[in-house]
Write the structure tokens for this entry.
Amino acid sequence: YQRRVHGRSQNTVTTSLLLSPFIHKTVMATMQAIITNGSGGPEVLSVATAPRPTPTENEVLIKVHAAGINRADILQRAGKYPPPPGVTAILGLECAGEIVEAKGAFKVGDKVMALLSGGGYGEYCAVDHRHVMPLPSSLSLEQAAAIPEVWLTAFQILHLVGKVKQGDYVLIHAGAAGVGSAAIQLCLGVGAHPVVTVGSDAKAVFCRDLGAIAAINYKTQDFVEAVATVTNGHGADFIMDCIGASYADKNMECIAQDGQWVLYGTMGGTVASSLNMGSILRKRIQIKGTTLRARSAEYKADLVSQFISHSMSRFANGEYKPIIDRIFGVEQIKEAHEYMEANQTQGKLIARF
């Protein structure tokens, strides 16, 4: 209403209007999240208040209990792996928690895990309900947070991009990391023979305990010779390669006739100038590259559906196990990133809210 003050009109808002439901609903909901203050090292990470996401028509809203920490988070933090268009700048490609706004087959209160394009480092995240999976009955939320990104990456490489089969020798680089530890178990699940490369004897023991038939310390052994020995000269039928250029020539030497070679990372560089193209023809090799984050929503939905059919009962009965190295509180996120960058991990790192 208006009142006169010294001859002038003055707008006055009543207390009842300030407290009205309409005005209250316009206040943006917030949450705590790990944010990046520019690009750089772990020092750019901090916990701060951020807008709480609002789910779209096809999305659920998850109250995040735990989030997986991945190499992609390190790259995005450093400014080398920007999120796809329209995706939040908050890091985090996988999470586990509780449904607070439901869609599809899920209801409020369901415990779930989810594959994300970003946003896992927040108290809440919104995600396509088709990319959400029920929590396996035998697992904690921390264990579940160690599944979506790395297990779906390994599953995609072995079963959708490539076609691993019983009896194949599968060479897995970085075998002790999250994707590698998942891939070992997925190979065993179809009767293939996982052979891994690692950077320490301790990691070699870890991988053999998971079921790898051989674990090669690349710092002390030539993995080409080791693969030839363990396969009786046959070579690797399938190579899971997250290294790239620095391993290209050696991969070519140890891959078998009609072998499959799937590149999903370039930790060792992008340009392999000495690669012998004639060997690709002579050995009839299939070389494919793949990513997951930028795939379409439909592709991810199909991948998640196939993964559920293949894997959920195996998690429930203990055949498949998410492997956790360490769990950090969100306030320890800098230490978590430093630990990952030191390449000491054996399994997954988890951030817990």
